[in-house]
What we know:
Rossmann fold, six-stranded mixed β-sheet, globular
Amino acid sequence: MSALHDAMLAEMEAASRLVYQAMTPTPQLHWPLLDRRSGCEVWVKHENHAPVGAFKLRGGLVYMHRLREARPEVSGVIAATRGNHGQSIAFAAARVGLRAVIVVPDGNSPEKNAAMRALGAELVEFGDDFQEALERARVLADEQGLHMIPSFHPWLVQGVCSAALEFLRAVPDLRTVYVPIGMGSGICAMIAVRDALGLSTRIVGVVAEGAPAYADSYWAGRLMTTPTAHTLADGLACRVPDPTAVDIIAQGADRVVTVKDEEILAAMRHYLSDTHNLAEGAGAAPLAALLADAGAQAGSKVGLVLSGGNADAELIVRALSGASP
């Protein structure tokens, strides 16, 4: 292994030690019923078992630690979110005694909103979607002297690398790993760890058909935005990608695919029936992509990142009933 890869791994392991001060590694499990359903050997990385029910906590913990080192004068932070990033920031800010303001769009998941408030966040509801909430957060950051935490940043990726390290070290011979793309920290971390470990695993990004900005960007070879991002998978509802994430995905991903909302609902249902695990929309999207791709993957060993399990009761009922989106 090269000196560069050694240095990359050392940085990832240092970030992992910060993460493990607040949480333990999550499991990666093999599920025979998913094998039967897909025709593959399926391993699932269960980030739904993290303390806030999603992988985002890892990035928030590392970001907050680095922020306290670099900017000790900061007394409060602000972020925009559809839920999991906000829970991560609220959790991590409380650990270091910082005020946390979280901006969500109007009509955001009431259960995710309640979880953020329970973690100590001051919640602001504004705008029709994530992008409008983000723009409002930037205004409030200036008005209130708060540090703006983006949804994609190298410190966030460093933290999320801890999950990818756990997965790829435990199951190093995966042919393909399917990773959902919200703003990109999850897939960029998987690419970085794959490269640092010197593996040949193919990495497939998954987005919702109604929020295809990252898929459009990948296939166009440049940053592409969309006027809307309509999907029941709120964690995938991006219409303005991060340019750095787009570049990393373009260089390191095998491809980026889209899945329909009805396929996501079916995948949520399959996770419940085949593994007794709850997957939110974004967390179920990789399984939806594998099932759409199963012919090409037949007989191979594949990984799925179940990125979170924070689904509202109403969405769970829809998934179980087989109701259309």
